[in-house]
Structures are given as C-alpha cells and as structure tokens.
C-alpha cells in the first residue's frame, strides 16, 4: 500500500478508514494532505474488497480548515494555478459511500470536507463553522453550495456571513449531521454503521449513492428517471438475485458484490 505522511489508511473488513494525521496543525488541509487523501480515496474507490470509506481526524480536530499558513501570501493568479479545487471534486466524485466521523473542530475546509461525505457522524464534542469570512475570504471547496442545499438560504447565509460556530446538537437540529454520538461511543457506533453499509451489495450501494447525488443535480422528473434507471440496472447483478432469493428462503444474503 502507498506510504502517506499526512494521513493513515487502514482496512477493517470491507471498511477502509482514512485518518487525517497532521496533529501539529489540527489536521489543516495543506496541499500534501489534499493530494494524499484524494489518492487514497480514489484507490479505495477502485478496490472491490472495500464497500465504504470512513474519513476521520483526531479527538481535538476533524480538520481546522485549509492551511492558512500555506495560503496567506498567495495571489489570485497563484491560487488559480495551484488548482486546489480539482482534487476536491475528485474526492466528491467517489462512487462508494463515504462516512465523515467528526470529533472536535470541523472548520472552514474541514467542514466542507465533511459536507462532501454522504453520512456525517458527530461526537458530542464536535464544532462546525465557516470562519473564512473573518479571514477576509469565503468557503472555497463547496461550503456555500452544499450547506445551502441542506439548511436553506437564511440559515446558510447566517453561518457563512457571520462565521458563527455551531455545536453538534445544533448541527443535528439543522440536519447537517446524520447523528450525534457521545464521545465514548463514537468508535463503536462508527464501526457498526460502517460495517452495516459496507456489507451490503456494492453495486446497490453505488447505485443508491448515484441516485441520491442525482437529486442534488437535477429536477424531479430527471431525478426519477435516473433513479428508475439505477434500480433497473441492478436486475442484471448476482447480488439482486441473491438478495431476493435470501428473502424468499428466510436467510441472510451472501453478497458477492457483483
Ligand atoms: N491552518 C494552519 N494552521 C492551523 C490551522 C489552519 N487552518 N488551524 C490551526 N492551525 C495550527 C495553529 O497555527 C497552531 O500551530 P502553532 O502551534 O505552530 O501556532 C496549531 O495548529 C494549534 O492551533 P491553536 O494553537 O490555534 O489551537 P487552539 O486550540 O488554541 O485553537 C482553533 C483551535 C480554534 C481551531 C484555531 O486553531 C483556529 O481558529 N484555527 C483556524 C480555523 C480557520 O480559520 N479555518 C478556516 C481556514 S480557511 C479555509 O478553510 C478555506 C477553505 C477553502 C479552501 C480552498 C482551497 C485552498
């Protein structure tokens, strides 16, 4: 497996865990971390032995944003040339389910990274926010676009325009996180949830994510057509035959992920 310096990658059954690992900078997303994370996620996406990817940080920080020290002296032309945006698009295009597990700070780009994932589990210690406005910039890797689609315009505007931080309970009330978990139970609940997802049929997981993603991009009619197509295509998979046979035979399915 590739050696990385700013992340750790582990496989546990069909679940891959990517842990952001720049403790000296509260996992700030510098260019190296971005490239390593995207490389790991796209490799795992192409690996049939993996059904779901967990992205997590440390107890203190999921990620405290893009690396301010790396960006501080850059000009507009330099930021354009650096292409910080393409790799994040690649991450957001991962076809398998991605679960963000957030403890501590998820700020700026860290919050935006969590929003690129499909499911967000938050420890009760988690804090979310877009502090960019206080730095004289704005979210740049999807924050304005994704938060608005979740919470609606006025709440999104308040978060983006003030930089106010919200705790896990408020994030759950606003529908930003899937679930808040007491810190002591975060690992167990993540393992259970990730395994429950990863052990499902891989073609069905990929189809389900494509249909959900489609809803963000299209109107209802086109979205219904996309869902119907994804649904229908699964009838040529071995797992659809196995899943439905297992139901009729009153047993658990034994998916081969084909
Ligand atoms: N970038 C670089 N270094 C950071 C960052 C960061 N975002 N966050 C923390 N660090 C470093 C600190 O500088 C410090 O290092 P040192 O000891 O060498 O000074 C170390 O991590 C520990 O941090 P603190 O001492 O500040 O820890 P505290 O517990 O006192 O505070 C906070 C924790 C509140 C999280 C605080 O560190 C903080 O406010 N961090 C910055 C948060 C922020 O503003 N994030 C937004 C950044 S901009 C952004 O994300 C834009 C996204 C779009 C990107 C587009 C492509 C590039």
List the SSEs and their pairings.
Blueprint: E1 7-12, E2 15-20, H1 31-45, E3 52-56, E4 61-63, H2 68-71, H3 76-82, H4 85-92, E5 98-102, E6 105-107, H5 109-116, E7 119-123, E8 127-129, H6 143-151, H7 153-162, E9 166-167, H8 168-173, E10 179-181, H9 186-198, H10 202-217, H11 220-233, H12 238-248
Parallel strand pairs: 2-3, 3-5, 4-6, 5-7, 6-8, 7-10
Antiparallel strand pairs: 1-2, 8-9
The structure holds octanoyl-coenzyme A (CO8).
The site of octanoyl-coenzyme A has 21 residues, from helix 2 and strand 6.
* Rough outline: globular
Structural class, please?
A: alpha/beta
Helicity range of the residues? Answer: 40-55%
Q: List the ligand species.
A: octanoyl-coenzyme A
What is the alpha-carbon Rg in Å? 19 Å
Brief rundown of the structure:
With 258 residues, the protein is of the alpha/beta class. 47% of the residues lie in helices and 16% in strands.
Describe the structure.
Its EC number is 4.2.1.17. It contains 12 helices and 10 strands. With 258 residues, it is an alpha/beta fold. The strands form 2 sheets. Strands 1-2-3-5-7-10 form a 6-stranded mixed beta sheet, sandwiched between helices. A 4-stranded mixed beta sheet has the order 4-6-8-9. Strand 2, helix 1 and strand 3 form a beta-alpha-beta unit. Helix 6 packs across helix 7. The site of octanoyl-coenzyme A has 21 residues, from helix 2 and strand 6.
What are the main properties of this structure?
lyase, 258 residues, alpha/beta, four-stranded mixed beta sheet, binds octanoyl-coenzyme A, ClpP/crotonase-like_dom_sf
């Amino acid at each position: 497996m590739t050696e990385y310096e700013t992340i750790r990658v582990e496989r546990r059954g069909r679940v891959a865990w990517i842990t952001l690992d720049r403790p000296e900078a509260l996992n700030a997303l510098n260019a190296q971390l971005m490239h390593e994370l995207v490389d790991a996620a796209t490799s795992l996406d192409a690996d049939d032995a993996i059904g779901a990817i967990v992205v997590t940080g440390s107890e203190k920080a999921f990620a405290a944003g893009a690396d301010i020290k790396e960006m501080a002296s850059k000009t507009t032309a330099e930021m354009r040339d650096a292409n910080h945006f393409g790799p994040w698009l690649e991450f957001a295009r991962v076809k398998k389910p991605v679960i963000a597990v957030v403890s501590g700070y998820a700020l700026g780009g860290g919050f935006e990274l969590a929003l690129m994932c499909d499911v967000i589990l938050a420890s009760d210690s988690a804090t979310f926010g877009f502090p960019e406005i206080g730095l004289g910039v704005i979210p740049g890797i999807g924050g304005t676009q994704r938060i608005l689609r979740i919470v609606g315009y006025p709440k999104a505007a308040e978060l983006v325009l003030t930089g106010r931080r919200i705790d896990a309970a408020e994030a759950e009330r606003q529908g930003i996180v899937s679930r808040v978990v007491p810190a002591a139970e975060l690992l167990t609940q993540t393992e259970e949830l990730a395994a429950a997802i990863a052990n499902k049929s891989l073609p069905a997981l990929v189809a389900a994510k494509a249909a959900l993603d489609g809803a963000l991009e299209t109107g209802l009619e086109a979205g219904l057509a996309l869902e119907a197509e994804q649904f229908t295509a699964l009838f040529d998979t071995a797992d659809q035959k196995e899943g439905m046979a297992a139901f009729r035979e009153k047993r658990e399915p034994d998916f081969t992920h084909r």
